[in-house]
Design goal:
Elements: H1 2-23, H2 41-44, E1 46-57, E2 62-63, E3 73-78, E4 83-89, H3 106-114, E5 116-126, E6 131-139, E7 148-156, E8 159-163, E9 167-169, E10 172-182
Antiparallel strand pairs: 1-2, 1-3, 1-10, 3-4, 4-5, 5-6, 6-7, 7-8, 8-10, 9-10
Length: about 190
């Protein structure tokens, strides 16, 4: 009987120890088990809807994105196998007048091209630097194929901010900041 009582007390003590250790606050450098660290590769995995694109000119003034207009839409996907796909476009682009793109006038074709970007490939993450590199395999912009598109990234809950290096648009130097919202599955409680 004494052995049984001792086992019972040991079990109760282990249960209490488990409950108490789970309730203790984490150290500043400790991460909860099962939670993705901020700016981690695991935190990027999922589907993201474009919220906004903020562009600034060389003077630091906010300007409307030439390619995407004031209310762009887009989708960004990172999967667990290291593949990614990105799309962004201007809302309300003029119609080509036919499903046959070969019949589009040069002006309409250029407007369609400039108002849309899409590419896919693999991605690499440098968590320490907060950098994600999109290794482009295929792109609407042929010059991007085989390129490494570097983006500084910041994760805050279900928000992702990507910042590419300074670029040129219509001959003008610009910076860009893309904000994305994680897409959650539809269903009860979501």
């Amino acid at each position: 009987m004494t052995t049984l009582r001792l086992r019972w007390q040991l079990c109760v003590a282990l249960i209490l120890l488990s409950v108490l250790s789970a309730a203790l606050p984490l150290r500043a450098d400790e991460k909860p088990r099962g939670a993705a660290a901020p700016n981690s590769a695991a935190g990027l995995i999922g589907t993201w809807a474009l919220v906004s694109i903020e562009e600034r000119n060389a003077k630091g003034e906010r300007v409307t994105p030439l390619d995407y207009g004031p209310e762009p839409i887009g989708l960004l996907i990172y999967d667990a196998t290291g593949h990614m796909s990105a799309q962004a476009m201007r809302r309300g682009r003029p119609r080509l007048g036919s499903d046959d793109v070969h019949l589009a006038t040069p002006v309409k074709a250029k407007t369609a091209l400039v108002g849309y970007n899409a590419y896919f490939g693999k991605y690499e993450v440098d968590e320490a630097k907060g950098i994600v590199v999109h290794v482009v395999e295929g792109s609407l912009i042929p010059d991007w194929e085989g390129s490494r598109q570097v983006r500084r990234f910041t994760l805050a809950g279900d928000r992702l901010v990507l910042e590419p290096p300074t670029f040129r648009a219509a001959g003008e130097q610009r910076t860009r900041r893309l904000t994305w919202q994680r897409v959650r599955p539809a269903g009860p409680g979501n």
